[in-house]
Structure formats: structure tokens, C-alpha cells
Amino acid sequence: MPPTTDPGLQQRLAYLRQRRGADRFPDDEPSTGQDPTGAISLDVDASGWVITSRVEHLDGLRTPDAFTRAVRAAHTGASLARLAEAAEEKWRDRVPTPEEEERGRAIVEGRRALTVPPRPRFRPIEIPSQPVPDPGGAAYDRGFRTVRGSSRDGEVTVAASVAGGLGEITVDGDWLASTGVELAHYALREAFHDLREKGSI
Questions:
Q1: I want to staple 143 with a disulfide (CB 3.0 to 4.6 A). Which of 22, 102, 114, 162 is the partner?
Q2: pLDDT on residue 5
């Protein structure tokens, strides 16, 4: 996988670590995802932005809807691989107690039901006794700013925000119906490159 030279990566990661927790973003390493047919694969950086894309074939992807679904599936695969790696890293050296092992066996064998204790969805609101300055509200707003990138001739357009991740993907249907694999590869790559160039907070 190519090294990431995106200057906005550290800004995006700092934003995400602050809002979602540092344990979900333990490193800066990219991950790779592929759609189920193997037509499209993406290398995605630690903040969820696409570094590189590859189009191997267009079988079954000649409509904008099918092409978009394949791009989203590849992106989701990369994101899930990253989350799985972060979870594995977090729990790698932990050894379960004998009680935990027995409880796990009982759940797997059906002798015990798995119950998740209820957790409040939100922290209780605390009313401050004095005025409170906005702790980085401007950065928070910038995280939701949608950035758009497009291929040179506008055949493919992608949108994303730091807080919301990959957004709208637009593909010219007439172009997609008649283009070759190589041109589709370059157009998708150009759109994600343009997005990354504009994507600093």
C-alpha cells in the first residue's frame, strides 16, 4: 500500500480522536477494502478518506447505482477491517479469567442468555453556574463541512466530510455505459485525489 502523504490526515485524525475516542484510531496505518465482485478496491487512510482506488473490471457495474454500490462496499470493507484491527490491538494481550471463559462457553452452548446492560444514550445535562466558552466549536463545524472532488472531466464526483465520512458519489451514466476499465480507474482515482487535496479541516 502506498505511504500516505496527505497533509490533512493528522488534522482529520485529531478531530476524530477527540470526538470518537483515541482507541478507535490507534495508528495512522491505512486499510484496504474491496467490493464483493472484486471490481473495485480502495486503500483508505485512518481517517476514512480514500488514498488510492483501483477498478479491475466493470462487469455488472455499467449503471451509476451499481458502480456507486461497489465503491461504497469497498469503502465499508476497508472501514470494517480498520475497526477489527483496532479491536484486536486493544484486546490482544488480555487473558480472560476462568469465570469469563466459563461464561463465554455457557453463552456459546446456549446454557446462558447474553444480556447487555442498559446504558444511557446521553450524559445528563449539567447546567453551568457561569458562562462557558465554546470549546472548539469552529473546529466542530469544520468537521461537518462537505468537500467535493471530481475527475478532470466531471464524470465521477465524490463528497465527504471529516465527521460524516464518505458522502454522495455521482457518476455520469452515459459515460459509464461506454467507457473502458482504464478510464473508469483514472476517473475514480482523480475524483478521490481531488477530494483529498481539498480535505483539510
A1: 162
A2: 63
Query: Using CB atoms within 10 A of its CB, is residue 140 exposed (0-12), middle (13-18) or buried (19+)?
Result: middle
**pLDDT, mean of residues 3-15:** 78
Q: With contact defined as beta carbons under 8 Å apart, do 35 and 19 qualify?
A: no
Q: What is the mean pLDDT of residues 104-132?
A: 81
Cβ within 8 Å of residue 120, ≥6 positions away: none
SS3 of 73, please?
Answer: helix
> Considering the chain, what is the average pLDDT of its residues?
88
* CB of 42 closer than 8 Å to CB of 185: no
Q: What is the predicted pLDDT for the residue at 75?
A: 96
Nine-digit cell string for 169: 458519489
CATH topology of domain 9-91+141-198: Ybab; Chain: A; (3.30.1310)
Q: In what order do the strands lie in the sheet with 147-150?
A: 147-150, 156-161, 165-171
Q: In whole angstroms, what is the distance from residue 190 CA to residue 149 CA?
A: 8
The predicted pLDDT at position 125 comes to 78
Q: Domain spans of the chain?
A: 9-91+141-198
Nine cell digits for residue 146: 462537505
The answer to whether residue 102 scores a pLDDT higher than 70 is yes
Q: Where are the beta strands (DSSP E) in 24-103?
A: 31-34, 40-44, 50-55
